[in-house]
Model the fold of this input.
Amino acid sequence: MAHNSKNIYYLTGFMSTGGAYLLVPKDSEPILWISKLEWNRAKEEAENCDLRMIKQRSKVIKTLSKELHDSKLKKVGFDEIEVREYLGLIKEWRGEMKNGVQLIWNLRKVKDDEEIAIMKEAAKLADLGVQVALDTAVPGIDEFRVAAEAEYAMRIKQSEGTAFETIVASGPRSAFPHGPPTKRKIQKGDLVVVDIGAIFRNYRSDITRTIVAGRPSKKQREIFDTVIEAQEIAFKRYKDKMKCSLVDRTARSLITKKGYGKYFIHGLGHGIGLDIHEPPTVSPNSRDQLEKGCLVSNEPGIYIPGVGGLRVEDMIQVGQNSGERITLTPRRIRL
Ligand SMILES: [Mn+2]
Done:
């Protein structure tokens, strides 16, 4: 049983705004429960399933329990469900509820050709957004303005929204890996980190670039070169059957060797798809493995509190023997 709207979309082609349930029995047609509000759209968009209307939200657990009971299901895997629903189902249905989330992640983790093509379009929108942001980010302009111009540019090119809250972090704020925009005005010599993504046909994109507003200092350039070098050597490992922890270690040991190890405070990358952060996870303790068709970020960063920070991020399509970068904005801009 799926309740997460992205999982339901993946399985049926219908993106609910929330509150839908999809039962996928082993040997009969899937059943999709949706609200009255979404009925007509689901009729047009949902594929290969039997549609049922949720007439009364307060009775939904009773309805689901009855279906599970009538179809004689004894054991069902769930992707996610609220505690209230869980307790209700236990009481009404009395079957065995299992954690089934891994089943669907195993499917979503590897993208097919159609998904890759869609994600390349999403990546193009992110490329546009980041380029507009960096053109806007000059001394005297505030961070809100930078985010607004970038988001507007993506939106009028048919982005369905931003993939996550746009990050624009300038000067000392660039040391926050996730610094939302503020009214701070960019000053000459500031590092400016822009991390942005778009949504195209429900799939998300993610790119980060860092520039200096003015002439980079020797130190800024040294940190930038370290991050780029780490990204480059890790990139060589974005291939089938590679252990994610090893990919992370490749970038991390280079950064550590240059003396910045303690300032690289997050994992190297994450899967991207219908969600902005999804499996596989590329981090020191990850037990995931890359597979051909995974779409994963490669984003080393160095953040020195009180001084500033710097990150460069690309989306990589994992291939058999090598990866392909699908975000195409040049990495060396004013640095
Ligand atoms: Mn990212």
User: Anything to note?
Assistant: The mean pLDDT is 96. The CA atoms of residues 7 and 104 lie 7 Å apart. Residues 206, 270, 297, 299, 313 surround manganese (II) ion (CB under 6 Å). The longest strand covers residues 191-196.
